[in-house]
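Colleagues,

For the teaching module next term, I've prepared a clean inverse folding example: a structure given as tokens, and then the sequence designed for it. I'd like students to try predicting residues themselves before seeing the answer, so please don't circulate the second half yet.
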């Protein structure tokens, strides 16, 4: 029986898109077996998709010191359905910010902590244009969370 990794993302900029593509590439590595990777924009992901997933990668810009409104919307629409139903599920996060990502990190830590999710990999934060090393970190993030679902 395969597991599902759900990548919920908001990718309004070329930099966010580069990071998203690297995460997807890592999560879909051919060496990772038995894990289906589902990609959904934060504005269109459904509560049912969030409930059905076995693990998550969350990607958002850090705008004005906070997560994107789209990412907040995704959780606002599914909060009560997810509460107590998804405890213990693994997740990872990647953030892009030009003015700092601390507020976005705190927001996602509060949301995922309240849901009882378990962080499976270190958060990847990038400012400005992603470097080769930043994109490798994103690839590793996707691969790590996906590979953890194989167990």
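(Answer key — instructors only)
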């Amino acid at each position: 029986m395969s597991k599902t990794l759900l990548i919920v993302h908001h990718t309004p900029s070329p930099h966010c898109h580069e990071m998203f593509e690297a995460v997807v590439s890592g999560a879909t590595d051919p060496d990772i077996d038995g894990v289906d990777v589902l990609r959904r924009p934060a504005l269109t992901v459904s509560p049912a998709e969030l409930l059905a997933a076995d693990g998550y990668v969350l990607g958002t810009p850090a705008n004005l010191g906070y997560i994107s409104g789209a990412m907040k919307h995704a959780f606002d629409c599914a909060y009560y359905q997810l509460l107590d139903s998804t405890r213990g599920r693994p997740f990872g996060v990647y953030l892009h910010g030009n003015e700092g990502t601390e507020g976005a990190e705190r927001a996602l830590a509060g949301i995922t902590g309240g849901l009882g999710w378990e962080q499976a990999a270190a958060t990847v934060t990038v400012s400005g244009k992603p470097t080769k090393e930043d994109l490798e970190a994103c690839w590793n993030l996707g691969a790590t969370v996906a590979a953890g679902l194989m167990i």
